[in-house]
Structure formats: structure tokens, C-alpha cells
Design goal:
heterodimer; A: mainly alpha; two-stranded antiparallel ribbon; globular; B: alpha/beta; Rossmann fold; six-stranded mixed sheet; about 30% helix; transmembrane transporter activity (chain A); ABC_transp_permease (chain A); transmembrane (chain A); membrane (chain A)
């Protein structure tokens, strides 16, 4: 007899299979998108070739990618850091806005220019992001209120706040733009075309966070708290203190993303400035399996996908297709992650 | 004749409702049940008695279709049956009320009764369901508010809902797992009344309990399980608590006495190393907590804590190790009050802790073996000098612990949950022994382990005692306690029922204390 096949659940997932599942998820999502595009009467291969030449064929394309990577790495890092302590920060979007808002306030109203102001803006951005996650953090730490919901809801508040100030009290009164603040006088300098110093800062932060988690006493404690709070309590680790510190750090990192976006890329504050970077950060973190170093790579991948959308738009396609593809990739990745816990065994009948 | 007076003698020729023949169930390394015969007659309340791990739950899980027996047969009303699923057991008239209720808290009583029931009307309004529920409650004479939300009910009321749900499905055999553990005395009396009415109609009840008094009160016959086998079935009227305690614990305890000290072993100290002074702890989740517990532990001795699980053992081990602070009273180590100290401070003082559920509180299952092995010493050199965590030193320490525990580990980076339960426990034990200069609190150190692993674990404990540490050994295995302890304290509903010396100890007395009966003789 041939025996029967059986799915067996393993106690731990296989890292190789999980990585393969991520690659497969991306390929399948692209295939499905290609079929959709073909059904709509266009040639997906031509479009694909165009995306590749536009992204990598010129310095401009590469620069666009470089600028997109910065906020994606940082918001992804924000989500991944919170995951390390066992929290879901769905509010990177709101913290991004809060950071951008606080940094703009410094840029607009503190007189002066140069590195000192830039430094102040950086700190303000970080503080703004941290302030935005403060209430959800304390609610989780002291009353066990689910941070998933509280951080998410505060996103809408931050989004509307930025719309309000940039079209209201802070709007550019010179008549050039009605829906944005005046240009900021202090910028994050660029070092390659339009790519600014936020790029090395983002990568440096990811490496720094990874190193602290792996090579410090504090990082060890945080990993233990995130993996099993009762074990941490058993070992006498202050669970609440670490939870608060890491969640504030997460908000702060998302705030830095917002600050770099207004001071390095857009040079002014306006509504909708986040481009969903905060939400995409969730996806970046999930694709990286919560690894701060992995976020650098999944952030780059996400930047490529976003950039493709912008290019496709010039070809008469709607950018919604990119959202559909990213959503599909996330969906398939979740399935792949679950499947990586299984293996097929054959039983003798 | 009244129901209460009915002494049980089934008329000759009566077919049992349920007959189990030669039931066996094996788990890897464990004999859960072997050669168990059990007959339950119509009209009887049949008590099932046994220590934790005696095989009661496994046997009932087989009878209710949750497990399938490896050998033996189930005969219902004279027909042999095989239950592949719990549904089939319910269809055959066997219903069980578990110790932990399986109700949907957010639903009403009526909704819970009708959930997953083939006889629930296809389209039913709230009113229809509640009317049906009221009728059922009246039929079975159970006091239930059909429209109330379950989360608003007391535990006694919730239990009635569980019972009604089983009875509504035409159960003829009702299995109750420690039903009175969660009830007030008044609620328990109410339950007993309902059970007597139920069996008076020719149905039967299997009543699982540790409490000797109530088993004597409610049951018609008693079967005793020990070590997965049935030891005896007796008419209740022929039994007394002493005899039951004897049967339950077992006469033929293998006295592999580990109390003997080797030459050069540390002597029992004069001054206590650890003192609990009138300590109370509030319970966290409906458990017992601790009430005014005073204990003294000397260096070089093993103090056994006997008692049925759930009588305050968890709280005791937590308060002794700083995981939880006492709500009143104080813990004193070496003459110093530990007020306000957390678990890390206790550990730094030389108090090790083998927790009762290693996977939930002693380890982080998803993290690596190295990470878990260094949990007690990560904060100091060589693992993290000056706050810098050194993975190489951590690995070396983990290897040292694993070698002491004689656990072969192929990859220190793999999640600790990939290890077997026995190996996890050895690692935890060795990790704790390294820091336990003064005291080791070991809660159920041999739980879930096979014989070989248990021996290793007990050897470790003796080794540590001989090195001069004081040990608190919390266990539900009396045999283990008798073999190791110098003194045994019995915990019942959060109180110390008595502390007895383990010389010329009367096993019956321990059994009685565990069942909540105060002994005539107490040795402080």
C-alpha cells in the first residue's frame, strides 16, 4: 500500500521555509497582478520591463527609491521594536504625523538656521512621536488596554490635526500654496541627488536597535518580556518599565520618520504627507518577521513596490493596484508563515 | 423510602448503564490507565477517588470520547460502543461537566443551553429559547435564570447551567469533575439534592473528588484509582475516611528513603534560614490564596508541602520567591525581612525556584536554549559585564548548565520548547541549583516526568540538601514527599493544617489532613 499523507504541526517554524514562503508570496502576488493587468488589455511584461528600467535604469529612478526607503525602514523599525516587547504598534502613522508636526513647529517658529535647529527638529520629531504613543502605552501598562486599538484610533486624530494646521493657522499666506505650511528654512542636507542624510540615519538606527537588543543586558530583558512576561516576572525583571520604555522608543522612531520626511524630502508640512508610510511599516515589520535588521531589506522591497506604483500611474494605471498587490503579499505571507509550522509526513497504512 | 436513605444494591439482573472492561491508555513514557474495569449501575452515584495523576481524568476522557482507549471496551446498556468523538458519547447519553466550565461568557443562559444542539429550533427568537430553557429547568428542577448573561452568574449558577446543558441532551450518565471545588457549602448541598433526584429516576452519576467527607456523604459506591489502575470498588456504607485515605495513597509505598545523610553532608541548622510569619496572600483567579501561614525552614532540611493541587501551593511558592508579595505578614530570610523585594532580589539572596509550570513561567518557550539557560545570571559577569551582553559567554554558561544537567543539546540556538519536558525540567533545575545557596523552592519538580527523569530530579534535590541548602518541596506525590522530607506540612484551602515529623509518620493522618480533616495529633 502507499500509505496516507498527513500534515504534522511542528513545535517551531522552519526559518528557511518562512523565507521561501515570503519569496513565493511576492511571486504569486505579482503573477496575479499580471493576470489582472493582462485582462484589462495591457501587456504585463512590457509594463514590468518599464518598471525595472525606470527604477534601476537611471540615477533619477534610484534616487526616488532611496528617498522612499527612509520612512519605510523607520516605520517598519518602529513596529518591529514594539513587537520585541510583545506590543502591536498600529499607530506609526499617527506618530509619524505627530513627529512631522512637532518638527515643523520648531522649523517655523524657532528663529535661526543650521545644525542646531536641525538637531532641535530631530529631538522634537522623536518627542512628538513618543508623546503620541504615551497614552496608549500607559493604558496598556497600567490597565491592560489593548494597544492595537488605541494606537490605531489616534492615527485619525493626528492625520486631521496636520490637515487642520497646514490648511489653517500654519498655512502658507504667500499665496503660492493654500494647503501647506511655508517651506522650512532648515533642511536635512542631501548627499546624492535628492537622497538626504535620513538614509544613513535610518539604516544606522536599525543596526543600532538590533545591536542593543542582541548585545545589552537591557536588550536581553526586553526580549524576555516580549516572549513571556510571566517568565520575566519570575526572573524579577520590571516588565512594566520595559514595556513603557520600548513602546515610547517605537513611537519616537516613527516620529523621526515624520521629521525626516518634512525636513529632508517634502520641506514643508502638508496634509496626507505620510503616504500611508505608517501602515506600510506594519507590512515591512511583518515581512521582516520583526527583525530590526530584516526591516532594512523588507523596507527596500516595499519602496520598490511603491515606486512601481508611481511608474505604473504614468502608464495610465491606478495606484490602487499597488495597494492591492501589497495587501495580497501580506495575506499570502501570513498563510506562508502558518504553513512553515507544518510538514507533510507519510504514514504506512 | 426516601432518596437519601437509599442504600445501593442493584436488583440482580440489572444491566449497568456503563461498563468499562480492561481499559488501557498509554502516553509516551506514561501508563495513564491499565486494565481498568468499572461498572456504573442505574440509580447510583459512583464516586471516583484518586490522587492527582491516578488516571481519573484520562479514564473519563476515554468514556466521553475525547481520547480513544488503546485496549479494552466500553459497553453502554449492554451494547459495545466506540466513541470516536465527544458527540458520539453525548448521543449515547454520557455527559460531563468539567472542572473548568465551557460556557460562552457573553451569551445568555438560554443561548448557552441551545448552543451546538441538534434540537435547537432552526429559527428561534430570544423568547422561544428562554421559554424552552425555563421548561427544561422546571423539568430537571434546577434553579436557573434563562435570560441572564453567563458572566453575571455566580460559579454555582454557572455549574447548574452546565448540568442543565448536559441533562437537556438526554444524558443518563452525568460525570462531574470535582464539582464542589468551586461551590459554597450551601451551593454544594443544593447540587447534592439535584444529583439525588437525577439518579432516583434510574440515571447515574460519576462523581470525581478528593474530598473524603463529601464522597462519604453523596456516593453509593466508591472506586479508587491509583497509578492508572483500579484498586478497589466498595459500597460506601462499608467505608470510612481512614480506609479510603489508605486505599488512595497506597500501602505498598516503596520507601526508598532518601532522608539518610551521607557522611560529610550538612547538618540541619539550628536557626531557620527562611521564615514565613503569618503570611496571607489574596488569590488571583478564584483560587484559595494563603491565610495566615507561618512556616520555618532550616538549612540542610527538606520541608515537604503536601496537599491537593490548587489549595494555595502556587501562591506559597510565589510568595517564597518574591514573584508575588504578601498582602500581610512577612517573609524573613536569614533574619532579614524581604519586604518590597522582587524576584531578582530573592534570587540574588540565594533563593532558587523551580516553578510549577516551567513552560509558562520558568522559561520563554520561543527563545533559544542559551537565552533561557542564563535567565538567572545574565545580569552579572561573565554574561554581561558593564551591561554589555556577551553571547559567547552566555553560550559557555548555557553549555555548563546543560552539561551539569546531562542534557545533550545539538543546537543552543533552537527554541527551548523543542526539548522534551524532562530535559527542560533538568535545565531549569540545574539553573536554579546554581543560585540556590540558601534555599530552593521546588514546586512539583517531578510533574509530567517519567520515572528516570523523576529519579534524577530527586537526586538533585538531595544533593542540594547535603550541600546545606534548605528546601521546600511542594508535591502531590505523597510517596515522593515521604521519601525525601524531614518534615511535612499539609496545605488545605490556603491554610497549614499541620506540620508533622516524618519519623513514625501515619500516612492515614496525612491523607485526612489533605482531605480537610483536622488531625487529633499535631506536631509543630
Amino acid at each position: 500500500m502507499f500509505g496516507s499523507y498527513r500534515l504534522q504541526r511542528l513545535p517551531s517554524s522552519h526559518a528557511g521555509i518562512a523565507l521561501a514562503a515570503r519569496v513565493a508570496a511576492i511571486v504569486i502576488a505579482l503573477l496575479v497582478a499580471g493576470i489582472g493587468i493582462a485582462l484589462a488589455g495591457m501587456n504585463p511584461l512590457n509594463l514590468g520591463a518599464r518598471v525595472i528600467t525606470a527604477s534601476f535604469g537611471s540615477a533619477f529612478g534610484m534616487e526616488d527609491l532611496g528617498v522612499l526607503i527612509i520612512p519605510l525602514i523607520l516605520t517598519g523599525l518602529a513596529v518591529a521594536v514594539a513587537q520585541q516587547v510583545g506590543a502591536w504598534n498600529i499607530g506609526a502613522e499617527g506618530q509619524f504625523y505627530a513627529g512631522a508636526f512637532a518638527a515643523t513647529a520648531i522649523g517655523l517658529f524657532v528663529p535661526g538656521e543650521g545644525p542646531l535647529i536641525l538637531m532641535l527638529m530631530f529631538v522634537a520629531g522623536m518627542a512628538g512621536g513618543a508623546a503620541w504613543i504615551l497614552v496608549p502605552t500607559l493604558a496598556r501598562a497600567y490597565a491592560n488596554v489593548n494597544e492595537l486599538i488605541t494606537t490605531l484610533l489616534l492615527n485619525f486624530v493626528a492625520t486631521l490635526l496636520v490637515y487642520y494646521v497646514s490648511t489653517g493657522p500654519w498655512r502658507d499666506r504667500s499665496g503660492m500654496a493654500n494647503s501647506a505650511t511655508p517651506p522650512l528654512s532648515t533642511d536635512v542636507p542631501s548627499f546624492w541627488g535628492i537622497v538626504h542624510w535620513g538614509f544613513p540615519i535610518a539604516i544606522g538606527l536599525a543596526v543600532l536597535v538590533a545591536a542593543v537588543l542582541a548585545f545589552s543586558r537591557w536588550g536581553y530583558e526586553v526580549r524576555l518580556v516580549g516572549s513571556n512576561p510571566s517568565a520575566a516576572k519570575y526572573a524579577g525583571i520590571p516588565v512594566r518599565k520595559h514595556l513603557i520604555a520600548v513602546m515610547l522608543l517605537s513611537g519616537g522612531i516613527a516620529g523621526i520618520a515624520g521629521m525626516l520626511e518634512i525636513a529632508g524630502t517634502v520641506h514643508r508640512l502638508q496634509g496626507g504627507i505620510s503616504n500611508n508610510f505608517g501602515y506600510l511599516g506594519i507590512m515591512v515589520a511583518v515581512l521582516a518577521r520583526g527583525s530590526p535588521i530584516g526591516v532594512i531589506f523588507s523596507g527596500a522591497l516595499m519602496a520598490l513596490i511603491l515606486n512601481s506604483g508611481i511608474i505604473l500611474q504614468t502608464q495610465g494605471l491606478t495606484t490602487s493596484i499597488v495597494l492591492a498587490i501589497t495587501g495580497f503579499i501580506l495575506f499570502l505571507t501570513a498563510i506562508g508563515d502558518e504553513l512553515s509550522y507544518y510538514r507533510i509526513t507519510r504514514e504506512k497504512a | 423510602m426516601t432518596v437519601a436513605e437509599q442504600s445501593f444494591t442493584p436488583p440482580p439482573g440489572t444491566a449497568p448503564i456503563v461498563q468499562l472492561k480492561g481499559i488501557a491508555k498509554y502516553f509516551p513514557g506514561v501508563v495513564a490507565n491499565e486494565n481498568v474495569d468499572l461498572e456504573v449501575m442505574p440509580g447510583e452515584i459512583h464516586a471516583l477517588l484518586g490522587e492527582n495523576g491516578a488516571g481519573k481524568s484520562t479514564l473519563m476522557n476515554i468514556l466521553t470520547g475525547i481520547y480513544q482507549a488503546d485496549a479494552g471496551e466500553i459497553i453502554i446498556d449492554g451494547y459495545q460502543k466506540e466513541f470516536a468523538t465527544p458527540m458520539q458519547a453525548i448521543a449515547a447519553g454520557i455527559g460531563m461537566v468539567h472542572q473548568h466550565f465551557k460556557l460562552v461568557q457573553a451569551f445568555t443562559v438560554a443561548e448557552n443551553i441551545h448552543l451546538g444542539w441538534s434540537e435547537t429550533p432552526r429559527r428561534a427568537s430570544k423568547a422561544v429559547l428562554e421559554n424552552r430553557t425555563d421548561e427544561l429547568a422546571k423539568r430537571f428542577n434546577l434553579d436557573i435564570r434563562a435570560g441572564a448573561t453567563v458572566s453575571d452568574l455566580s460559579t454555582g449558577e454557572q455549574q447548574r447551567v452546565e448540568i442543565l446543558r448536559v441533562l437537556a441532551r438526554e444524558a443518563r450518565l452525568l460525570i462531574l469533575d470535582e464539582p464542589t471545588a468551586v461551590l459554597t457549602p450551601a451551593e454544594a448541598r443544593e447540587l447534592f439534592r439535584a444529583l439525588r433526584e437525577f439518579v432516583a429516576e434510574g440515571n447515574a452519576v460519576i462523581f470525581i473528588s478528593h474530598k473524603l467527607d463529601e464522597v462519604m456523604e453523596i456516593s453509593d459506591r466508591i472506586s479508587i484509582l491509583r497509578g492508572g489502575r483500579k484498586i478497589a470498588t466498595r459500597q460506601t456504607r462499608d467505608c470510612d475516611p481512614h480506609m479510603l485515605a489508605n486505599l488512595m495513597v497506597g500501602r505498598e509505598i516503596v520507601l526508598d528513603d532518601m532522608r539518610h545523610r551521607a557522611e560529610g553532608a550538612a547538618q540541619v541548622s539550628v536557626e531557620p534560614v527562611l521564615v514565613l510569619d503569618n503570611v496571607s496572600v489574596s488569590s488571583e483567579s478564584g483560587g484559595n490564596g494563603l491565610a495566615n501561614v507561618s512556616l520555618k525552614l532550616h538549612a540542610g532540611e527538606i520541608l515537604g508541602i503536601a496537599g491537593v493541587a490548587g489549595n494555595g501551593q502556587r501562591e506559597l511558592s510565589q510568595v517564597l520567591t518574591g514573584v508575588r508579595s504578601a498582602s500581610s505578614g512577612q517573609v524573613i530570610v536569614d533574619g532579614k525581612s524581604m519586604k518590597g523585594a522582587n524576584a531578582a532580589v530573592f534570587a540574588a539572596f540565594g533563593i532558587g525556584h523551580i516553578p510549577e509550570d516551567r513552560l509558562h513561567s520558568g522559561l520563554a518557550p520561543a527563545l533559544s536554549i542559551t537565552t533561557n539557560a542564563v535567565m538567572r545570571e545574565y545580569g552579572q559577569a561573565p554574561v554581561s559585564p558593564h551591561g554589555i551582553y556577551n553571547p559567547r559567554s552566555a553560550y559557555r554558561l548555557a553549555r555548563e548548565i546543560a552539561e551539569a544537567a546531562e542534557v545533550a543539546i545539538p543546537d543552543y540556538g533552537m527554541p527551548v520548547r523543542n526539548l522534551s519536558g524532562g530535559n527542560q525540567q533538568r535545565l531549569v533545575a540545574r539553573r536554579e541549583m546554581r543560585i540556590a545557596d540558601k534555599v530552593l523552592i521546588a514546586a512539583y519538580p517531578s510533574r509530567g516526568l517519567d520515572v528516570g527523569a523523576i529519579n534524577t530530579m530527586l537526586r538533585y534535590i538531595v544533593e542540594l540538601r547535603d550541600a546545606g541548602a534548605g528546601i521546600v518541596l511542594i508535591s502531590e506525590e505523597l510517596e515522593e514527599l515521604l521519601n525525601l522530607s524531614d518534615r511535612i506540612a499539609v496545605l488545605y484551602e490556603g491554610r497549614i493544617m499541620g506540620v508533622v515529623d516524618n519519623d513514625n509518620l501515619d500516612i492515614e493522618e496525612i491523607g485526612l489532613l489533605m482531605g480537610g480533616r483536622t488531625a487529633a495529633r499535631e506536631v509543630a
